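protien #1 (seq + structre)
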Amino acid sequence: MRRADRVRCLLSLFIAPLLAGAGVPTERYFPPSELASDLDDSLREGFARHFAGIDEPALFAMPGVRYAVRVAISRCTGVTILRIERKSDGEITSNFRKFSFLDTGINPKPISSVVKKLTPNELARLSAEVQRQDFFTLDLPPTMLTGGNTIWMIEVFDGTKYHAAFELSQDPGTPFGDIAAVAAEIAHVTY
């Protein structure tokens, strides 16, 4: 990747979202109890600004939602979101949306949006994987960010507890990668 592309990528991931979403409080999307290190704070702030720019709800505060998992991917070229939720009335859906950036991280343009109904068995598979990986104790902050990184975030809300974790990849065989893979598989999508 050329140096200019790396700079543009860093701008799109962190600086431009700050400018585009100035005034979006991180707590709108992440409870204060979730804020840990300075790097976590920076990542959460960047995702909060992306979410505000695409009208994505706060996972832990959606009315009528009893269980939800969101996989969010921030790339230099755009943002991808997979949100799976079970509502109080029992309806289970997946919402998969992709956005590209018109400018350096500003003005996300929708590329695709697919909403599907899921079965209780499909959600049970994802919920079991979240539990098997002990997601609520998972803490995988990236150790170093450089130009060109793709940043993955998984959030889970089980009706009472909320947790978010970040990673630079979703490698198979890792707790993070396995949860992201099951989510994509039951939603029938490719990140």
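ok now protien #2
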Amino acid sequence: MENQTTNTMSPIDLSGNRIKYSKEDVDQFILQFGKEAPSLLAQDAVMSYATTDYKEQMKNDPNFLTYKGLKDGTATILNFINDPKMQSGEISGNFSQRPDAQRKMTDSEILKFFTTLNDVDIEDTIMRGW
């Protein structure tokens, strides 16, 4: 798949707009969903952005921001994550120039980029619950 785009959209920067999950929110997800919680939290975060901040882009391109697209590296939004100094969610790098196989995001990366959670928050909570 060719990752070039002629769109003039600016690089994605969520630094001031990431979803804030509290420790209580995470605890509830863990209690309810166990080890599936990180995946479900990541899906929830993606859906939240897709239906609010990127609603217009989703109308024009249904693959602009989807959980599946982030996981397999084909989501159009990845074309705009291209600032190697970007601090949003501690994810950095030029996703726009990577082939799809190298653009794949893990649930942890999705959570780091779109939320205020990090690996330690999730792993600590899961370990406490199991």
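The mean pLDDT is 75.
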